[in-house]
Amino acid sequence: MPSSVPSVETVFTARQITKVYHMGEVDVHALRGVDLELFAGEFVVLLGPSGSGKSTLLNILGGLDVPSGGEVFYRDRQLTEFDDAALTRYRRDHVGFVFQFYNLIPSLTARENVSLITEIARNPMSPVEALELVDLGKRLDHFPAQMSGGEQQRVAIARAVAKRPDVLLCDEPTGALDVRTGVLVLEAIQKINAELKTTTAVITHNAVIAEMADRVIHLSGGEITGVEMNSRKRPASELNW
Ligand SMILES: Nc1ncnc2c1ncn2[C@@H]1O[C@H](COP(=O)(O)OP(=O)(O)OP(=O)(O)O)[C@@H](O)[C@H]1O
Fold this sequence. Notes:
Layout: E1 10-23, E2 26-39, E3 43-47, H1 54-61, E4 69-74, E5 77-78, H2 84-94, E6 95-98, H3 110-118, H4 127-133, H5 149-161, E7 167-171, H6 179-196, E8 199-204, E9 215-220, E10 223-229
Parallel strand pairs: 3-8, 3-9, 6-7, 7-8
Antiparallel strand pairs: 1-2, 1-4, 4-5, 9-10
Helix pairs in contact: 3-4, 3-5, 4-5, 5-6
The protein binds adenosine-5'-triphosphate (ATP).
The site of adenosine-5'-triphosphate has 13 residues, from strand 1, strand 2 and helix 1.
Organism: Lacipirellula parvula
Protein name: ABC transporter
InterPro entries: AAA+_ATPase (IPR003593), ABC_transporter-like_ATP-bd (IPR003439), ABC_transporter-like_CS (IPR017871), MacB-like_ATP-bd (IPR017911), P-loop_NTPase (IPR027417)
């Protein structure tokens, strides 16, 4: 155990994390010594160009991937010492994921897609409550094919937050959406962060989206190149790109 144990208000501490993918003869250095802290309840945007290491970093924090080197703490537990079973429990109990593509089950309604998670979670909200949170109370019995892309993404968000996760990790959540529907999705994420106090990290390469964050973490070439606080964070409803 290192000398400085992260405080309770620090949700993630990453120290010198590296990730190298071996592609035949070539080593791809996706992360080159990243130090990072994420704090309870904050809304962070990870901003950087394609290939800068954003998804790799988010996947490591969420226990979907493991670093090649360095240490990652989730609160006072060292994720980098977890075995596969412990990582699975960690993801199930504490992490909500939202991806660019919604990964809904086409043959299930919105309510049933969310139920898949609430049935196995420890202290979930009801599927109806989760869907109302993302303003889909009137789409409970719609199938994915009967909903717009933005609505489907909001079902995916309801599914991610219905178990009341400690952290919500979103990888390009508006990447497949036009501005109007993208803003509605960002409004849903912002509302969840504000009302449930879920620590939230959103990956984007769209600098406009960074304006809604408490803190913006810039990545380039597998390194953090800057961290800035937004003096005035903007409501998602004001964003345009
Ligand atoms: N499974 C993998 N195998 C090999 N190389 C990978 C793998 N995953 C990512 N990489 C490489 O690691 C680097 C960082 O990728 P990553 O997906 O983390 O970047 P990103 O900033 O999220 O990019 P994007 O915005 O395009 O999703 C890239 O050079 C990528 O090609």
